Automatic annotation (TrEMBL):
Residues 14-140, 147-253, 274-355, 363-441, 448-526 form the Ig-like domain. It holds the Pfam family C2-set_2. Keywords: Disulfide bond, Glycoprotein, Immunoglobulin domain, Membrane, Repeat, Signal, Transmembrane, Transmembrane helix. The gene is BCAM. It is found in: Membrane. SUPFAM superfamilies: Immunoglobulin (SSF48726). This is Basal cell adhesion molecule isoform X2. It comes from Galeopterus variegatus (Malayan flying lemur).
Length: 588
């Protein structure tokens, strides 16, 4: 008889086998391997590359392998690592000629020192974990290289704008970059949108070369149909290149100009400095005649002058300027410039003329001599004449003070204040720095004019004997007057500062009682007459200190006289002994 549990166990066994078979037949029921991989790695050339491949689950044992996929798709084992215990033992199997060689770190990451362009490949990481399964992932490596300095080679020849097709402008080169960059062209900072196919208005060509280092060099050539407006244009090219993380940058070439050939359409002809806006130049100056055509290269210039309605050639050159040295008034007239450009259109105006006006100013003439002498209160007129072109303006001044405009200076009822230097100035407002002057000295003759500085007493009580006083007299006239005093001691006459024509003299003396009667005078004289001024002092009092001394002198004299009388009295009475003593004793 079977135990009850044995029959039940026999019934469960087929069920467990079926479950095991079902589990084996269902993939999701098996253990799986999952990897942590960065699908795209971007680095700059020369940097260290680290490719990471890490199982997400924990396995007691697994083997990690790194493969390189070539351009045909074949795989090449580079390195492998096996987990033994807690350590991962790695081995590099094939460096494939790379220098420095591939490396594996302690975590099974593939290391590529100094990234190179040739490292751009797909790298496959395979992890085998036994019963847990096998997993693989692909890492794509991109290596970027910044191009070297951009080079531009402009066409150094002379390009004609009369060509009806595109001409080679310049070649732009970008060396050793990765990936291949892009070259664009610019005119005056604006990008030129030109096609890659030949076009009469303009196009560009491009050529890419892979260098031995694996880097890429790009050459672009620009072709354009040129216009006259391009004569002042700036051209340059730019290289646009890519960087990691979708970054972009550019390198710009130096700007360059083109040498163009185009015919003359217009001619300019003008007077250089120091001419005025009205075309006047000063006699004796050197003047430049400047001529410029808008053709290129510079055409030949012919300078000429019209004399008696005939053209007289003066000079022919390529510089476009003619210098007239020390021009004279006879050189005024019509001058011309002609451009010799045989490529110019038939209707182009290639000749221009201008009028040259030579301004001159002759020396001034005065109706008076350098010194004009007039009697006091007389009148006269002085005339100033001049020859010049354009007509000059005349102005009279004295001591920089304007007196009036015009050729005639009227002097009426002259005084001593009228004496001085008079200047006639001739100028031309439209011609800077062209002016002349002429002057004369006016002398006014007449008897002296005398002025004295009045004196005032020092004290309120008036003058006292012994007071010191300084007397000053000033005079003017022509001839210069002489100054004298009624007492000796006067200073010599000297000019008065700031007062033209005046001379002065001073006398210092002490006041006496005699001055109160007649005073003291100064006198100015010249051949035309004389005049004097008297200084009065009024009443002169004696000094207080002198009165006191006189009183004391009188008192002393009286006292001495009394003593003499007393002595005489005593001597008369000698015969009486004791006479004088009794009187002295009796005196209370």
């Amino acid at each position: 008889m079977e135990p009850p549990g044995a029959r039940a166990g026999a019934r469960r066994a087929p069920r467990l086998l079926l479950l095991a078979l079902l589990l084996a037949a269902h993939p999701g029921a098996q253990a799986e391997v999952h990897l942590s991989v960065q699908p795209l790695v971007e680095v700059m050339r020369g940097e260290l590359v680290t490719l990471d491949c890490t199982p997400l689950e924990t396995h007691d044992h697994f083997v990690l392998e790194w493969f390189l996929t070539d351009r045909s798709g074949a795989r090449h084992l580079l390195a492998s690592a096996e987990l033994q215990g807690s350590e991962l033992q790695g081995t590099v199997h094939d460096a494939r000629g790379r220098s420095p060689p591939y490396q594996l770190d302690s975590q099974g990451r593939l290391m590529l020192p100094k990234a190179q362009v040739g490292d751009e490949r797909d790298y496959i990481c395979v992890v085998r974990a036994g019963a847990a399964g096998t997993a693989e992932a692909t890492v794509r490596l991109r290596v970027f290289a910044k191009p070297e300095t951009i080079e531009v080679s402009p066409n150094k020849g002379t390009l004609s704008v009369m060509e009806d097709s595109a001409q080679e402008i310049a070649t732009c080169k970008s060396r050793n970059g990765n990936p291949v960059p892009q070259i664009t062209w610019y005119r005056d900072g604006q990008r030129l949108e030109v096609p890659m196919e030949m076009n009469p208005e303009g196009y560009m060509t491009s050529r890419t070369v892979r260098e031995a280092s694996g880097l890429l060099s790009l050459t672009s050539t620009l072709y354009l149909r040129l216009r006259k407006s391009d004569r002042d244009s700036h051209f340059h090219c730019a290289v646009h290149y890519s960087m990691p993380s979708l970054q972009h940058s550019r390198l710009d070439s130096p700007a360059f100009h083109l040498t163009l050939h185009y015919p003359t359409e217009h001619v300019q002809f003008w007077l250089g400095s120091p001419a005025t806006t009205a075309g006047w130049v000063r006699e004796g100056d050197s003047v430049q005649l400047l001529c410029q055509g808008d053709g290129s290269p510079s055409p030949e210039y012919t300078f000429f002058r019209f004399q008696d309605k005939e053209e007289k050639v003066l000079n022919t050159n390529l510089e476009g300027n003619l210098t007239l040295v020390g021009v004279q008034r006879g050189q005024s007239g019509t001058y011309g410039c002609r451009v010799e450009d045989y490529d110019a259109a038939d209707d182009a105006q290639l000749s221009q003329t201008l009028e040259l006006h030579v301004a001159y100013l002759d020396p001034l003439e005065l109706s008076a001599r350098e010194e004009l002498s007039l009697l006091l209160n007389s009148s006269t007129a002085v005339n100033c004449s001049v020859q010049g072109l354009p007509t000059p303006t005349l102005r009279w001044t004295k001591n920089s003070v304007p007196l009036g405009n015009g050729p005639v200076l009227s002097l009426s009822s002259v005084t001593f204040d009228s004496a001085g230097t008079y200047i006639c100035e001739a100028s031309m407002p439209t011609i800077p720095l062209l002016s002349r002057t002429r002057s004369f000295e006016l002398l006014v003759q007449g008897p002296p004019e005398l002025r004295a500085e009045e004196i005032e007493s020092k004290a309120e009580g008036g003058w006292k004997e012994g007071d010191e006083v300084n007397l000053i007299c000033s005079a003017r006239g022509y001839p210069e007057p002489k100054l004298s005093w009624s007492q000796l001691g006067g200073s010599p006459a000297a000019p008065v500062p700031g007062r033209q024509g005046w001379v002065s003299s001073s006398l210092t003396l002490k006041v006496t009682s005699a001055l109160s009667q007649g005073g003291i005078f100064c006198e100015a004289s010249n051949p035309h007459g004389n005049t004097r001024h008297v200084f009065h002092f009024g009443t002169v009092a004696p000094q207080t200190t002198q009165v006191g001394v006189a009183v004391m002198a009188v008192a002393v004299s009286v006292g001495l006289l009394l003593l003499v009388v007393a002595a005489f009295y005593c001597m008369r009475r000698k015969g009486r002994p004791g006479c004088c003593r009794r009187e002295e004793k009796g005196a209370p």
